């Protein structure tokens, strides 16, 4: 291999780590995942180390002569694994806690966007319920109400009335939310622009269409992601270039001036409005669980060469662009209303499967967990073909309480 990397440590334990480990294994590397889970353990070696125990992760990397550590876990990033590894001369592809604060905290993201004068929906941040309720009395509905940090729970809701908004705000504070972020709901097409950056230069990796609501037609509970497709034909090259020039570059420049450059993958979550303009909602410090496989399937570069170049500072010299195939990918999350149900049909499908922390029972059968259970991804020459084959495979998978959206990429015809 060009970079000489033979051993890689991936930090995380969810669907995106499964997809990432599988991709890296295809390069012929020995892959360790910490903490991993029982499903990841089927394809890689797992180390039973918590994501927040960065000192033990460092000791593991040193002891096992890890050549490169790739961090997709928000918990590990928040606990400043990057700075610790860098201080101990261990190559790592991940942002520091300080540089990624705006991607981990919704309140920090909103303040950052406002300071840089980047278009974002009208918002307010509160740490006391009464002040939030007072604001809601005169707010434009619908309002998006979210906790400051992602709890991977029911931490967000779109409220169409003052009554429902007040009830949800009160509920979040009862559940010990430290802060809530309120913002005007913007109607339009939601998408993410992902970039790879060494903190000084950035290259576009993918533009992904997002599906965040649980029900067809953008109804039901607002989630952190329930489906995706890429490339996103609804987002023009002009819009993508505008985001690179007017969002990504100012963000990286501001962090450079603070002497905290951001190294890693950065996702810019946006809404394309009906008038063709866009607003930025927030940021992600890595690929998301629901779109990771879709993006990775289209990357024609060796990811380890790419990540290694960022980590050692040769990114600008080595890359003018990131090569991606002309294929298309569609992903759909399959959820379960309850846990412990046997999943049938996995051996009948051709789509890529990435797992949330499901497990096998004593009969070696996969069982569901309550909530998001699987991500199915199909890659083909066109979006329409990928969508067709994806939903054919979804019909082959059966378990009690299966739930998924049937309208992902529905409008596509000739793409």
Describe it for me?
This protein folds into 4 domains: 87 residues, Rossmann fold (3-Layer(aba) Sandwich), CATH 3.40.50.20; 63 residues, ATP-grasp fold, A domain (Dna Ligase, domain 1); 132 residues, D-amino Acid Aminotransferase, Chain A, domain 1, CATH 3.30.470.20; 76 residues, Phosphoribosylglycinamide synthetase, C-terminal domain (Glycinamide Ribonucleotide Synthetase, Chain A, domain 4, Alpha-Beta Complex). It is globular. The protein has 13 helices and 20 strands. The strands form 4 sheets. Strands 10, 11, 12, 13, 14, 15, 16, 19 and 20 form a 9-stranded antiparallel beta sheet that branches. Strands 3-2-1-4-5 form a 5-stranded parallel beta sheet, with helices on both faces. 29% of the residues lie in helices and 28% in strands. With 415 residues, it is of the alpha+beta class.
Which sheet architecture does the biggest sheet show? 9 strands, antiparallel
Average pLDDT reading: 95
Helix percent band: 25-40%
* CATH fold node name of the largest domain: D-amino Acid Aminotransferase, Chain A, domain 1
- Structure annotation, total helices: 13
Which superfamily, in CATH terms, is the homologous superfamily of the largest domain?
ATP-grasp fold, B domain
* Uncertain stretches of 5 or more adjacent residues: none
Report the β-strand fraction as a percent range.
25-35%
What structural class do you assign from the helix and strand content? Answer: alpha+beta
The overall number of domains is 4
Which architecture of the largest domain per CATH? 2-Layer Sandwich
Number of strands: 20
Query: Any idea of the CATH class of the largest domain?
Result: Alpha Beta
What characteristic shape results from the CA principal axes? Answer: globular
